[in-house]
């Protein structure tokens, strides 16, 4: 097998949560270009359908299943719909996440904390559990969690978000250990500052942005497509001997 073939996702079924825009969309399009059948999912069907159209324009199969990852029954439905329609689940990317408020931890309300944990952490757990059962039965699969450098170094003003992402990193390792003997690999990507709607408040506030730039050795923020390559590596056979890994893609900010 050539090294390029090892990066192929031909005949693989991949689900990407939060793929209607931003990093999730870039990952979904990259997977389609690598030959996967791609399930586009987020809360809003219409936004997902636009991405599904882009996938089909690239000659790949696509399917939309809306899912709010804070709702376990919707996650269970997502996995069972895909299994019913396409017979298998080879790759799950847990990308959807939220950060409803900014501020000091001492001023963070229980409701904000609960919302963050429900979506960013329990959602990843519930989707990995549902996909894990299918993948164990298949004897193969790859789960990729999108965490954050905020889960490695505590971020200012989004402390609860950072805690949720630190937990996602640990959850990655726990699932990796449990599922390895079933042929299922579980890895994680920790992006730094990436230009999406999610990071727009930060990137568009010059005082905050200039401070953030000082922390990035490569001297710039990243683009969503710069995360897609890492996801493709972790989804494909090219990373067949990699599990429980946290791949940092951050322009060097965690070493800066
Ligand atoms: P984004 O552009 O805001 O996209 C977020 C995606 O998630 C959208 O498709 C959104 O679609 C979906 N979503 C939001 N809440 C959801 C929910 N409850 N259930 C299902 N889908 C939901 O954000 P992004 O920057 O690409 O973020 C993607 C991932 O990267 C997140 O895990 C984030 O924590 C992580 N990350 C981002 C950065 C950065 O600088 N951008 C840095 C580190 C880590 P709907 O609104 O239709 O649901």
Tags for this model:
binds NADP nicotinamide-adenine-dinucleotide phosphate; globular; 7 strands; alpha/beta; 256 residues; Rossmann fold; single chain; 7-stranded parallel sheet
**Largest β sheet strand count, sense and barrel closure:** 7 strands, parallel
What would the CATH topology be?
Rossmann fold
Query: What is the distance, rounded to the nearest whole angstrom, between the alpha carbons of the first and last residues?
Result: 38 Å
Please state the second-level CATH architecture. Answer: 3-Layer(aba) Sandwich
Descriptive overview:
- With 256 residues, the chain is α/β, with parallel strands linked by helices.
- The protein has one domain: NAD(P)-binding Rossmann-like Domain (Rossmann fold).
- A seven-stranded parallel β-sheet has the order 3-2-1-4-5-6-7, with helices on both faces.
- The longest helix is centred in the middle third of the chain and has 29 residues.
- The protein binds NADP nicotinamide-adenine-dinucleotide phosphate.
- The site of NADP nicotinamide-adenine-dinucleotide phosphate has 30 residues, from α2.
Task: Give the arrangement of secondary structure elements.
Blueprint: H1 3-6, E1 13-17, H2 22-33, E2 37-41, H3 45-57, E3 62-64, H4 72-86, E4 91-94, H5 110-138, E5 141-146, H6 159-179, E6 184-191, H7 200-203, H8 206-214, H9 225-235, E7 246-249
Parallel strand pairs: 1-2, 1-4, 2-3, 4-5, 5-6, 6-7
Helix pairs in contact: 2-3, 2-9, 4-5, 5-6
The structure holds NADP nicotinamide-adenine-dinucleotide phosphate (NAP).
NADP nicotinamide-adenine-dinucleotide phosphate binds at residues 17-24, 42-44, 47, 67-70, 95-98, 119, 146, 148, 191, 193-194, 196-199.
């Amino acid at each position: 097998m050539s090294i390029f073939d090892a990066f192929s996702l031909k005949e693989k079924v991949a689900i990407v949560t939060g793929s209607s825009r931003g990093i999730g969309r870039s990952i979904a399009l990259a997977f389609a270009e690598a030959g996967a059948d791609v399930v586009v999912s987020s809360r809003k069907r219409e936004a997902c359908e636009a991405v599904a159209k882009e996938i089909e324009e690239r000659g790949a199969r696509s399917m939309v299943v809306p899912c709010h990852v804070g709702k376990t029954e919707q996650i269970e439905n997502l996995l069972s719909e895909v299994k019913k329609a396409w017979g298998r689940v080879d790759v799950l990317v847990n990308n959807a996440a939220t950060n409803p408020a900014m501020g000091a931890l001492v001023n963070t309300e229980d409701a904000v904390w609960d919302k963050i944990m429900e979506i960013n952490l329990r959602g990843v757990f519930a989707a990995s559990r549902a996909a894990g059962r299918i993948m164990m039965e298949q004897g193969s699969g790859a789960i990729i969690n999108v965490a954050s450098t905020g889960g490695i170094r505590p971020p200012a003003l989004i402390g609860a978000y950072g805690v949720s992402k630190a937990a996602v990193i640990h959850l990655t390792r726990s699932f990796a250990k449990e599922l390895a003997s079933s042929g299922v690999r579980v890895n994680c990507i920790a992006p730094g500052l990436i230009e999406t709607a999610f990071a727009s408040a930060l990137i568009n506030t010059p005082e905050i942005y200039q401070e953030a730039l000082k922390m990035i050795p490569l001297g710039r923020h990243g683009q969503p497509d710069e995360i897609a390559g890492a996801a493709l590596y972790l989804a494909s056979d090219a990373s067949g001997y990699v599990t429980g890994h946290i791949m940092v893609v951050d322009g060097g900010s965690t070493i800066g």
